[in-house]
Amino acid sequence: MSSIAKEIQPMIESNPDMLIHAIQSQLLRKHQLEMSLHKVFRANRIAATRIYGDYQEQYGLLRSYCDELLKANPGSTIKIDVEPCGNSGSPTSQFRRVYVCFASMMRGFKMIGRPLLGVDGFFMKGPFPGQILSVVSIDGNNSIYPVCYALVEAETTQSWKWFLQLLRDDLGCTAESCFTFISDRQKGLIPVMLAVFPNGEHRFCLRHIHENMKSKWRGDLYKNLLWSAGRKTYIPYFNKAMEEIKTTERAMYDWLNEIPYTDWSRAYFSGRANCDMLLNNICEVFNRQIKGARDKLIITCLEFIREYMTKRIVNVKKLQAKCMGPLTPHATEVFDEIKKQAAEMSVLMVDSNKYQDALMLAYQKSGFQKSGMPCKHAVATIWDMSRNSIDAGIPEEWVSDVYWLSTWKKVYENVIEPINGPDMWTPSKCPTTLIPPKHHTQVGRPKKKRRKAFGEKELEQEFDKGGK
User: Fold this and answer.
1) E strands within 175-286?
2) Beta strand pairing status for 180-183 and 144-152?
3) Quick one: DSSP state of residue 345?
4) What mean pLDDT, rounded, does the chain reach?
5) Residues 402, 110 contacting (CB under 8 angstroms)
6) What is the pLDDT of residues 387-433, one digit of tens each?
7) Backbone angles phi and psi of 179, in degrees to 5
8) Which position has the higher pLDDT, 239 or 31?
9) Calpha distance 208→183 (Å, rounded)
10) Which of 162, 239, 421, 435 has its CA 20 to 30 A from that of 216?
11) Whole-prediction pTM
């Protein structure tokens, strides 16, 4: 018998009623606590229903909500897709997907001058989980620029095809259209992308390639070899980096050779996107900003995303009002570093034609063409031309229009117009009522956060600086 038991044994024997009373008191307190918790949870459910509405009710109002969006933002594309039904006389239609592309955001994207689009999926929570598919671009200040999004049942070949075909129509694609896409190689996406955008350039997120590679080759040695090859802007330097990989680990070299170089190395990028980005961080940043929508009812979820995009435009405009100079803040910071490196270089004049040849060579074979910004060699040449009375203008004049402050401001003149409250929505004239998709009860406690890859948080912060 333990010391505590020995101590209380005389008390139990002398006064058993006291022990019974103590046990009853404990049980009563436990029951009261359980009842209080039950009331709290019940009150929380009632409050959530009052604030966000009922799931069934919001699906029934979805068509009216979409009509209101189109009324406030004419020219936009909003499509609702329903499950096929064999009974044509049914009074209900079961929701499957919804696509939203505001005309103002599409106009803004086309004005940016960077035909680069990040594509990604983001899973939903709640009783009717699905996926939020998004397309995000990057503006002249290297900040994210959301283009369109959709709520679908899952990331499948069919849902990606439906989403990308609507995107293609909104982009106004022709046989000559060339867009650059960057993705994490999601299931079902690649074959659909090739079919819908046959002339598109497709990049793979280099960090995602590294994640796949880590199952066989772990450690900083292999990571640094991969990133060194991906960052090279000259093909001879890239070949040298690949030879180093071949010498270090032949199996890794063979594995990388199975992935087209045009998909992950700057040396092979076409340059038509005016961006040499290697990562799909733009989508990941957007997903993180809208994570509060993932467990909401459908209209509340769509409104969360619309309101975020609206607020972001306002924040960018506040930042623009403080900016001075010909270039955007990020472009100014990058170009100042290029000019600093150029100041340490010396240029020997031969004749004016040689200068021109030097500038064209820099444009064709360096990051000049791929990023839209002159390299240090070009800047040093421009300065020396001015010193020798050859009119070449200032180095900033050689920077692509993509990075000019005036271009950046024109992009954000395109705004998303607000809508009226639900009481003022016009009832939909569709003869059928939308009902929720099939209920899906998830196993276990739902997770709120996705596990991030090593270094992902630091890389995402780069895109949060402008218009967070």
Assistant:
1) 180-183, 201-204
2) unpaired
3) -
4) 83
5) no
6) 877 787 888 888 989 999 999 999 999 999 999 999 999 998 888 88
7) -120, 155
8) 239
9) 9
10) 239
11) 0.80
Residue holding tokens 């079919």? 195
| Res 55 pLDDT > 50 | yes
End-to-end Cα separation, the chain, in angstroms: 65
The token pair that represents 204 in the structure block: 């793979």
State both tokens at 125: 């929570």
What SS3 class is residue 182? strand
State whether residue 351 is helix, strand or coil: coil
> If you search the block for the tokens 């990051």, which residue do you land on?
367
Residues 6 or more apart in contact with residue 455 via CB below 8 angstroms: 207
Coil, strand or helix at 391:
coil
Three-state DSSP at 255 gives: helix
> Can you tell me the mean pLDDT for 210-218?
90
Judged by phi (left if over 0) then psi (alpha if -120 to 50, else beta), residue 101 lies in beta
The answer to whether 307 and 299 have CB atoms below 8 angstroms apart is no
- The predicted model gives 143-167 an average pLDDT of 94
Phi first, then psi: what are they for 453, rounded to 5°?
A: -75, 160
- Quote the DSSP letter at residue 96: E
Distance CA 146, CA 138 (A): 8
CA distances from 297 to 31, 186, 307 (A): 34, 26, 15
Contact in structure between 105 and 136 (CB atoms under 8 Å): no
